[in-house]
Write a sequence for this structure.
């Protein structure tokens, strides 16, 4: 996978992640029904759907946080269904959480120590964990700077409890980036952000794509998502009702009527 | 035949021990490590009233239950309510209360032998060639009746439904006007009364000893884990699994090994199906 | 209550951090003798105090024994504190670790004829390993399972040994080598305690300490970071169990005997009480708690099991009314100026 060439993948390319017929029920409620899709290297795949449509369940199912009832998830040609979450993260398929729970009492950069301590970060980071005290701190600050924590203003050194939501969302992303991932699944990074915070988040996601990271973005904010994503997947009641480019999805009658409620889609976009 | 009959008796005994614990855990997610202490306390109070004050059996039992229920409710209201949500403190505090009661009773002179509750009914009967005394039959009958009553209470009365609602989703229950602290007090009182009832039914088969407190706690916990923490049907089912496993162990391997059965059952459950036989997926996610 | 009344009188307590506390992470701490003394003196007090105690108790052989017991309980208690407040696992059965250490050391000493300086370290490691192995099934699950299963093991271990009549049955294993003299016994324990204490304090402030805390507070994020939380929980249990086993091994050699009573309830409850009284999460607190509670326990020995009821009540009182513990309270008083201001 080339890091510079971040064009949408050609059709004949091997998918990086492919989900086939995934089912999940919670006590009679079908949370996921036969969901299938492919993720090409370098893509940004948007996943949208109304509340309770199974978006977060899909993320949990892919990353191993819940066990699926049936279906397979294949990553880099190897099946990862049923693997433990940490094994999946170790392969470079990481995720953010909708609810962020950083160490509020610690400085922001200290929050990256845990992922930097992981086996994957030690392998891919090129430094041997242990070493001198403080070496991980330096790397952590570098990662934070890359993701928009201004070093000059000492934001990386401020206590996580004093950071606004925008920075906490970035911190959550940084936690994934510390693993040097190939795929990052972002669970609602735009939710709870102000307009200006969102505006600054969009170029950040583009930058990640340019760096060769494949992204799945689970979102409510359609305007920003449609600007970013090459492909969009629409879920409703756990089932995939539509998949295509943003414009295809916007024009899809089924999406518009069955689920956004006719004209309402335009008020979102 | 013997195995089946004694298996049933043993299973019902275990179910009785566990019901109170699982009720409290199910409703308020609070592992009540003082459960065993309430069991012994009920028996002790009943014995004292019976032998020191000469009260009739029925009255002594009733007062014993009322006192234990009150102690349980007070323990929740004055101590545990202040530390709700801090899992470490909850466990330690309830365990400490249980220890204080048990070891206090031991110091107060509670030793084996002297403290014996009379069986309700003497004598025995032959069932299919096995001699079973009436008390044991009574245990099965009362045990079944209690489980039935609990079921009726939970599904038919308003209070029971409120408890059930809280067990399913505490926050949602609160939005529907159920006072979660009050309900938790009720659950704790009920759980303690159940421990007391179990004591009054079971203790006549042996003497009241402090060790019984630990034994009951361990068995209750074992049954609840195997059945799925907080699941009432699971607890009854698990009581039968462990109950028969114990009897089979005694019959075919040796009485020594009986103590290990519960532990082995817990470990096998934790490895194979951590949520227990009847644990729900939702709970699994929450806890695992 | 009294604070509230005073507040109504129109004044409140103002707290100011001593400047040195704020700066003590930096180089400023060594800028003057006064500041260095401020930082070093509490630590020095503990170290010198502990090291001097065997000499101070020279005329009182009984209390010298008590000092050894204090050290053993302290080892167990700092293990409990570490496990509860840095890994998030409440171990209600510290007696298991003591018993495992005692029996393993006794077996190594009597059966294999290993000398005392080999059997104690070996028992430390093997005991820690054995306990970790026994508790492994409940590690992938959340706290309450661990509390329950760890409670069951010591209660059952005694009964199993009794029932199967292995390892000397109810008589226990006798004829162990003792320590060469009473000073060796005490200094081995005190130095081991100090090393473990400062070692653990160092450990929890290192990067790996953050991982442990992550396992406790936010296991989802740790899993999503590609770290196996079970491994770290097991490591935490191993550390705590090893500390307990070290104590147990020393205990067996002090009494030259290992028996069922080493699974007794005292070993489970005193460390917990000491941690709560001393201040959970401080690691030093449990040692202070043991220094207070174990002598009380010795004075109450005539009252039999009442002493367990007494700790249980002390424990309950502290957990409900003073949950920060003495150490946290003391540290705050030491590091802050407090005074009343009019409002």
């Amino acid at each position: 996978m080339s890091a510079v060439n971040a064009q949408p993948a050609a059709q004949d390319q091997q998918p990086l992640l492919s989900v086939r017929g995934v089912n999940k029920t919670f006590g009679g409620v079908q949370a996921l029904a036969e969901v299938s899709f492919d993720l090409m290297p370098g893509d940004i795949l948007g996943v949208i759907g109304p509340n309770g449509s199974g978006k977060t369940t899909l993320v949990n199912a892919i990353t191993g946080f819940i066990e699926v009832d049936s279906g397979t998830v294949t990553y880099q040609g190897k099946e990862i269904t049923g693997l433990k979450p940490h094994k999946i993260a170790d392969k470079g398929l990481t995720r953010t959480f909708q609810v962020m729970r950083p160490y509020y009492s610690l400085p922001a950069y200290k929050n990256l120590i845990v992922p930097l301590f992981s086996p994957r970060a030690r392998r891919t980071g090129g430094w041997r964990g242990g070493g001198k005290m403080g070496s991980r701190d330096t790397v952590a600050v570098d990662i934070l700077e890359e993701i928009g924590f201004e070093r000059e203003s000492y934001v990386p050194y401020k206590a996580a409890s004093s950071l606004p939501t925008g920075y906490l969302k970035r911190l959550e992303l940084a936690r994934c980036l510390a693993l040097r991932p190939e795929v990052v699944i972002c669970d609602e990074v735009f939710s709870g952000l102000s307009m200006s915070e969102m505006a600054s988040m969009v170029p950040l996601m583009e930058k990640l794509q340019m760096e060769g990271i494949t992204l799945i973005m689970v979102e409510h904010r359609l305007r920003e998502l449609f600007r970013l994503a090459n492909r969009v997947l629409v879920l409703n009641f756990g089932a995939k009702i539509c998949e295509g480019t943003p414009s295809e999805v916007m024009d899809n009658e089924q999406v518009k009527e069955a689920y956004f409620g006719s004209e309402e889609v335009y008020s979102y976009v | 035949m013997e195995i089946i009959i004694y298996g049933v008796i043993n299973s019902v005994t275990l179910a009785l021990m566990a019901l109170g614990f699982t009720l409290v855990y199910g409703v308020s997610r609070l592992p009540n490590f003082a459960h065993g202490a309430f069991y012994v306390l009920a028996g002790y109070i009943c014995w004292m009233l019976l032998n020191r004050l000469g009260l009739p059996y029925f009255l002594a039992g009733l007062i014993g239950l009322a006192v234990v229920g009150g102690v349980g409710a007070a323990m929740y209201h004055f101590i545990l309510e202040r530390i709700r949500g801090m899992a470490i403190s909850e466990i330690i505090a309830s365990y400490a209360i249980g220890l204080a009661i048990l070891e206090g009773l031991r110091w107060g002179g509670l030793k084996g032998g002297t403290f014996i509750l009379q069986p309700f009914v003497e004598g025995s009967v032959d069932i299919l060639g096995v001699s079973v005394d009436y008390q044991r039959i009574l245990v099965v009958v009362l045990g079944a009746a209690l489980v039935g009553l609990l079921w009726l209470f939970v599904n038919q009365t308003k209070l029971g439904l409120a408890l059930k609602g809280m067990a399913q989703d505490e926050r949602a229950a609160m939005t529907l006007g159920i006072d979660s602290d009050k309900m938790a007090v009720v659950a704790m009182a009920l759980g303690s009364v159940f421990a007391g009832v179990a004591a009054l039914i079971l203790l006549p088969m042996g003497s009241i000893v402090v060790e019984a407190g630990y034994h009951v706690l361990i068995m209750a916990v074992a049954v609840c884990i195997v059945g799925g923490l907080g699941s009432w049907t699971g607890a009854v089912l698990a009581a039968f699994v462990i109950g028969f496993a114990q009897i089979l162990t005694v019959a075919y391997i040796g009485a020594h090994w009986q103590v290990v059965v519960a532990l082995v059952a817990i470990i096998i459950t934790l490895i194979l199906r951590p949520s227990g036989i009847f644990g729900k997926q939702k709970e699994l996610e929450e806890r695992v | 209550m009294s604070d509230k009344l005073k507040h109504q009188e129109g004044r409140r307590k103002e707290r100011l951090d001593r400047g040195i506390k704020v700066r003590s992470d930096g180089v400023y701490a060594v800028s003057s003798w006064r500041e260095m003394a401020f930082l070093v003196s509490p630590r020095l007090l503990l170290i010198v105090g502990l090291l001097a105690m065997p000499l101070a108790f020279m005329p009182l052989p009984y209390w010298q024994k008590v000092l050894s017991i204090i050290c053993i309980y302290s080892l167990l208690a700092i293990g409990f504190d570490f496990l509860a407040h840095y890994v998030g696992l409440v171990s209600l059965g510290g007696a298991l670790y003591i018993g495992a250490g005692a029996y393993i050391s006794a077996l190594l000493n009597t059966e294999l004829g290993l000398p005392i300086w080999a059997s104690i370290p070996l028992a430390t490691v093997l005991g820690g390993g054995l306990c970790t192995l026994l508790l492994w099934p409940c590690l992938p699950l959340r706290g309450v399972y661990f509390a329950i299963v760890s409670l069951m093991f010591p209660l059952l271990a005694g009964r199993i040994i009794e029932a199967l009549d292995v390892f000397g049955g109810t008589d226990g294993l006798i004829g162990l080598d003792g320590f060469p003299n009473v000073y060796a016994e005490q200094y081995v324990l005190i130095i081991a305690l100090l090393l473990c204490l400062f070692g653990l304090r160092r450990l929890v402030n290192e990067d790996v300490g953050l991982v442990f805390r992550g396992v406790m507070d936010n296991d989802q994020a740790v899993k999503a970071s590609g770290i196996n939380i079970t491994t770290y929980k097991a490591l935490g249990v191993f550390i705590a169990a090893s500390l307990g086993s070290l104590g147990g091994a020393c205990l067996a050699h002090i009494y030259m005997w290992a028996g069922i009573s080493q699974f007794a309830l005292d070993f489970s409850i005193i460390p917990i009480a000491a941690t709560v009284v001393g201040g959970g999460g401080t690691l030093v607190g449990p040692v202070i708690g043991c220094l207070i509670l174990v002598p009380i326990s010795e004075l109450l020995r005539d009252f039999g099991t009442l002493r367990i009821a007494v700790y249980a009540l002390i424990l309950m009182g502290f957990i409900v009314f003073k949950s920060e513990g003495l150490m946290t309270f003391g540290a705050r008083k030491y590091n802050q100026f407090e005074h009343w201001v009019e409002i």
Observations:
- Chain A has two domains: 15-92+183-269, 106-181.
- Chain A touches chain C at residues 63, 65, 84-86, 89-90, 94-97, 101, 103, 106, 110, 113-121, 133, 136, 175-176, 178-179 (CB under 8 Å).
